[in-house]
Hints:
- The protein starts with 18 loop residues before the first strand and ends with a strand.
- About 0% of the residues lie in helices and about 45% in strands.
- It contains no helices and 8 strands.
Amino acid sequence: MNITSDKPSGYRYGAGKVAKSVTFYCAAPNASSVHLVGDFNRWNPASHPMRRRVDGWWFIEVQLTHGHHRYRFLVDDKPVLDPQGTGIARNERNEQVSLLAVS
């Protein structure tokens, strides 16, 4: 079988190039909207609105590459850290954000 590729010769697939499906959950039963913002979407709430489940949890599935990602939830436009995150970091504005390690 002949396989053609537009990749340069010697190109190797690296873990940083492979996306992995990650599901985020946020408990906000009284919220009218929840968005996921992070370094992976340039902190743009419009790009990742979360969906509400009947039990009050919000969720979204996002494709993320290997490495560490900074993020937080916007619950009714107010920033909220993720208690299930890997840790806490700072964004470019020196605000606290959640940290997630994707392997």
